[in-house]
Design a protein that fits this description.
Rossmann fold; alpha/beta; 2 domains; elongated; lipid metabolism; 5 strands
Length: about 220
């Protein structure tokens, strides 16, 4: 179980610099950048606040449609996003692929989302419900989290007891982070060979390049 990819670059000295297919990008997340992605709409007294939480790693159409259905349960959608440590404990391996700030920006950019809680608590407590004035808690029908993570058992206990828990059926139950990661790994060699061929063609072009007089 590791999450080294979230905090340091690949330092494998056996990989030739010319054979690398990409470089590490460190995005500097600022409050202004987050604000540019968010809706900036505050909930009114008339709004029905719907809350949904999760990892939202590698944001995809499955996430978007689930959030759309959750929003339809009320008028204001509040999304809680778990921090990196929590996601790693839940899913293990190298998850999350994207760090917390990247996942926050992806979710904030979704048109159905009104507000985001950064590093949301795993357990939905009465205090959270009261503080954020939550009327409905939406729960996805499919969870890819490890069943061995004990906190997951009591995740929705409070909203269920209060009678505000609603299940949102996923339109893409098989589209998970693991599925996307598998596709990427499967097509990695094709991607590398394609770029290598393009690089060879480009090098040949520049080696044989001749001056062409302009008319």
């Amino acid at each position: 179980m590791t999450k080294d990819h979230l905090c340091k670059p690949n330092t494998d000295e056996n990989i030739d610099l010319n054979e690398r297919t990409g470089t590490l990008v460190r995005m500097l997340t600022t409050t202004r950048r987050i604000a540019e992605f968010s809706s900036r709409r505050a909930p009114s007294a008339e709004d029905t606040v719907v809350y949904v939480d999760g990892a939202f790693d590698m944001f995809n159409v499955g996430h978007a449609t689930t959030l759309e259905k959750a929003k339809a349960l009320g008028t204001y959608l509040l999304v809680g996003i778990f921090d990196d440590e929590t996601v790693n404990k839940m899913k293990g391996g190298n998850y999350p692929v994207m760090n917390l700030h990247e996942r926050v920006l992806n979710v904030s950019a979704c048109k159905h989302v009104d507000e985001v809680i950064i590093g949301a608590p795993v357990e939905i407590s009465e205090d959270l419900i009261r503080t954020m004035n939550i009327s409905i808690v939406a729960q996805g029908s499919i969870s890819s989290f490890s069943t061995q993570y004990e906190i997951l058992v009591r995740l929705f206990v409070v909203p269920k007891r209060l009678g505000i828990l609603r299940e949102v059926e996923s339109d893409y139950p098989h589209l998970t982070g693991a599925t996307i990661a598998t596709r990427i790994i499967k097509n990695c060699l094709t991607y590398i060979n394609r770029n290598k061929k393009r690089s060879e063609i480009e090098s040949e072009y520049y080696c044989n390049k001749q001056h062409i007089a302009e008319q």
